[in-house]
Specification:
Layout (H helix, E strand, L loop, with lengths): L24 H7 L8 H15 L4 H14 L1 H7 L1 H17 L6 E3 L12 E3 H15 L4 H24 L3 H14 L5 H12 L3 H14 L2 H6 L1 H23 L3 H21 L6 H14 L3 H13 L6 H13 L3 H14 L4 H13 L3 H14 L4 H20 L3 H20 L2 E11 L2 E10 L5 E10 L5 E12 L4 E9 L5 E4 L3
Antiparallel strand pairs: 1-2, 3-4, 4-7, 5-6, 5-8
Helix pairs in contact: 2-3, 2-5, 3-5, 4-5, 5-6, 5-7, 6-7, 6-8, 7-8, 7-9, 8-9, 9-10, 10-12, 12-13, 12-14, 13-14, 14-15, 14-16, 15-16, 16-17, 16-18, 17-18, 18-19, 18-20, 19-20, 20-21
Length: about 500
């Protein structure tokens, strides 16, 4: 007996408006000691670059003069001051990269190079190589070189963010890879890589990219910058949810291993952000993973707070908490949570189904009967609903039989048979894949299966209900023609505030 869950909502993702990042000049100066005035030829190149940066005269000619000086005396300068040579060369390339409209792959001659002038050069790769050489020679210079890397990196990642928002993922991925050439110290590239993987339904890729992002951002970094903290917050939550989704699709030892990782990830998120608005969803997800591991005692602690004050939780969170309790065989707790859902939303289809199953598990036939009956009214072309109703009557008949109440026994058994016959007579079956809410807009999607031997077209009348079960909108949808033993999809959209549930008429 399996309790159905509503589909978990897609993980929320957000892009971040990026900037080049502030320089920490004082810290860099104290840690980065690179001589750029000796030999004299290096100082000449440095002064030419300074004129380009200041905009004195013709900046382009000044930058080219710096490159020519480095080329003309390259061997001598490198022999005496390798770090200084690469620092000035990298800064010149960074200056070019910062120019509006600058192409990244150009001829060496266009930059002022006199050595191999006709060859092409990738400015991003060249700048990265120069700064890498500086950092190898003087590791304390990483902070300063990053201040030259980031301005070249930021426009690429900003452009990728816009492309991701427009689902132009292939182009965005190329920009992300280009951005990684010059700078790998930001969480944004792996964060956006995770978003792209999720959009492509690449679960392992999304998990790996989120994990990388978490490894990049230290708690200290998050504490210093609100934007970085927001990324860490969302990524830690996403990582746990994605691990849980992966565990849901596994079985046996692999499922248990992934579930343990998910529990640890949820706990890390809850420890880091105990007051976050996603806290209750994280608790419910962790409870589900603990249930998959068979840790019923731990599950109980997770949904104990839900039982103490259900008003703090949404319907979907209570539903998941109840499901966790059910899977842990804590049926009274599961029933209380499902009952709390139906007290707010009496026609919530999945809560009706789950509560009927829970009452069945406790042989509470009198309670099960009206819940199963309401489920059949909400979802009349669902064979499971009629099966549950038949089980409730059969159970009530067994009680009457034990009490030797032959009249009641016969009535209950006869009604149970009637519902089984009704279930078996259904020649069309309805299943639902989505019930989404976006303000006053509500979207319902599903399929109709034709179980008969002939093609058929169906017209289904839907009513959309408020929290009191009152119809506030209605619409029909025509599905078909549907071939025998095949299914066809449908979508119904309505605009009306206050909708929380739906039902449809038999057809």
């Amino acid at each position: 007996m399996i309790v159905r869950l509503t589909a978990a909502s897609l993980i929320a993702v957000a892009t971040v408006a990026l900037v080049g990042g502030p320089a920490n000049a004082q810290q860099a100066a104290s840690e980065c000691k690179v001589e750029t005035d000796k030999p004299g030829q290096l100082k000449t190149a440095k002064n030419a670059l300074a004129r380009a940066i200041a905009g004195i005269g013709d900046p382009g000619k000044a930058a080219a003069d710096a490159v020519k000086e480095l080329d003309k005396n390259g061997a001598k300068i490198r022999g005496q001051n390798e770090a200084g040579y690469n620092m000035i060369l990298g800064q010149v390339y960074a200056w070019y990269l910062a120019r509006p409209g600058q192409e990244h792959v150009v001829t060496r001659a266009s930059l002022g190079h006199t050595v191999q002038p006709e060859a092409t050069i990738d400015l991003l790769t060249a700048a990265d190589s120069a700064f890498d050489a500086v950092e190898r020679a003087v590791p304390g210079c990483a902070a300063e070189t990053n201040d030259y890397r980031r301005p070249a990196w930021a426009p690429l990642v900003n452009a990728a963010a816009e492309l991701i928002n427009n689902d132009q993922l292939d182009t965005a991925e190329k920009l992300i890879k280009r951005a990684d050439v010059i700078y790998q110290g930001s969480p944004h590239t792996s964060y956006f890589t995770a978003i792209m993987a999720q959009k492509r339904n690449d679960l392992p890729g999304a998990i790996a990219a989120n994990k990388r992002t978490i490894e990049i951002i230290t708690p200290e970094q998050a504490a210093k910058d609100e934007g970085t903290n927001q990324i860490r917050n969302q990524v830690m939550y996403n990582y746990a949810v994605l691990l849980a989704a992966q565990a849901d699709g596994q079985s046996g030892d692999p499922q248990k291993a992934t579930a343990r990782e998910a529990v640890a990830a949820y706990k890390a998120f809850l420890d880091a952000y105990p007051n976050d608005e996603q806290r209750t969803s994280a608790q419910a997800g962790m409870g589900r993973m603990l249930a998959a591991l068979g840790d019923t005692a731990a599950v109980a602690t997770v949904f104990a707070e839900m039982l103490a004050d259900p008003s703090k939780y949404t319907d979907s969170q209570l539903l998941e908490g109840g499901t966790n309790a059910f899977n842990a065989s804590r049926f009274p707790d599961a029933a209380r949570l499902f009952e709390a859902v139906l007290a707010r939303n009496p026609y919530y289809r999945d809560a009706l189904f789950n509560l009927a199953n829970t009452y069945w598990s406790q042989n509470q036939w009198d309670k099960m009967m009206p819940i199963a009956r309401r489920l059949a009214q909400v979802d009349p072309h669902n064979q499971d609903a009629w099966q549950l109703l038949a089980i409730a009557y059969k159970g009530r008949g067994d009680v009457a039989k034990a009490a030797k109440n032959l009249a009641l026994e016969r009535a209950m058994y006869d009604t149970a048979v009637k519902h089984v016959e009704h279930k078996n007579a259904l020649t069309s079956r309805v299943a639902f894949t989505l019930f989404a809410h976006d303000g006053p807009k509500h979207t319902l999607r599903g399929t109709v299966e034709n179980a008969s031997a002939k093609p058929a077209t169906y017209t289904v009348w839907f009513e959309f209900l408020d929290k009191d079960g009152k119809p506030v909108a209605a619409q029909d949808v025509t599905v078909g023609p549907v071939e025998p033993k095949k299914t066809a999809p449908f979508t119904v959209e309505v605009n009306q505030a206050g909708i929380v549930a739906f039902r449809y008429a038999p057809f």
